[in-house]
Specification:
Length: 97
Amino acid sequence: MDWQFGDQNALHAAVTQGAHAMTQLENYAVAIGDKLRTIDDYQTHHRLREATGRKRAEELNERVMIWSLGQSAVVVFIGIGQVFLLKSFFNDKRTRY
């Protein structure tokens, strides 16, 4: 959702410059403008928190992937080493004199 609003200072200046009392509608307009600014501040804050959290999650995902690839490589190398070790048990090593 995107709120677009005009110059807030012009409304406040027009209200404070005039010698007339604000009508109830003008009071509501000022209150709504203030609430919209508050909502905009909250949205900015939550967007920043979401972006920070997303960046951290992506970095953590990358680190987990690298760790998993390393673990997979270790498992493959250990498997290959075990195959060669077992093969060496069944090789006939006759010494010739």
